[in-house]
């Protein structure tokens, strides 16, 4: 990626990705995620107890997900049984800039009244599929209402995707080969112009 225009403090203008996200915003080049309330993130469970799951969200400190209050409709007797290594799509509900306490996350979406047992909720455990990392600024572009890269992928494959603003992307499609192709397309398009993306897709389509 060309970062010749980066300032000395490590900030730069987002790359020219076609998206409805305001790419005039400045982003930090650091690979460390700094949580913000309301962010959608992908976390990996690293430990658990009776009350909380502890997640790695790529920040300077871990996040905690309440085992009951973090899922709509969950009770002490009927709640998700997640394990170390499971991937969870969730939302940051509280962050502590001084890191005196862990970041708090939840799998409850205010606009979604479905209970966790339906497995149709917006947030929750992501099963199967493949998770990979992208530059954090790129995750903002990918999460826009329209994204050229994802539209190009959708023209070639049927897939599900979850994008975390902590620089993580999860993809699941009909088979492992398609899933890896989608991940490859997404990762390689970062920082390219539209003509460069077109050329890349043409090249990859004709590659073995």
UniProtKB/TrEMBL annotation:
Domain of life where this protein originates: Eukaryota
Intracellular or extracellular location(s): Cytoplasm; Nucleus, Nucleolus
Pfam families noted in UniProt: KH_6 (PF15985), RRP40_S1 (PF21262)
Coiled coil: none
Principal location listed in the UniProt entry: cytoplasm
CDD domains the UniProt entry points to: KH-I_Rrp40, S1_Rrp40
UniProt entry keywords in alphabetical sequence: Cytoplasm, Exosome, Nucleus, RNA-binding, rRNA processing
Ranges that cross the membrane: none
Cellular component, GO annotation: cytoplasmic exosome (RNase complex); nuclear exosome (RNase complex); nucleolus
Gene Ontology biological process: CUT catabolic process; exonucleolytic trimming to generate mature 3'-end of 5.8S rRNA from tricistronic rRNA transcript (SSU-rRNA, 5.8S rRNA, LSU-rRNA); nuclear polyadenylation-dependent rRNA catabolic process; poly(A)-dependent snoRNA 3'-end processing; TRAMP-dependent tRNA surveillance pathway; U4 snRNA 3'-end processing
InterPro entries: Exosome_RNA_bind1/RRP40/RRP4, KH_dom_type_1, KH_dom_type_1_sf, NA-bd_OB-fold, RRP40_KH-I, Rrp40_S1
Domain (K Homology): residue spans on this chain: 129-176
Molecular function GO terms recorded: RNA binding
UniProt family annotation: Belongs to the RRP40 family.
Family annotation (PANTHER family): EXOSOME COMPLEX COMPONENT RRP40, PNAS-3 RELATED
Protein name: Ribosomal RNA-processing protein 40
Organism expressing this protein natively: Babesia bigemina
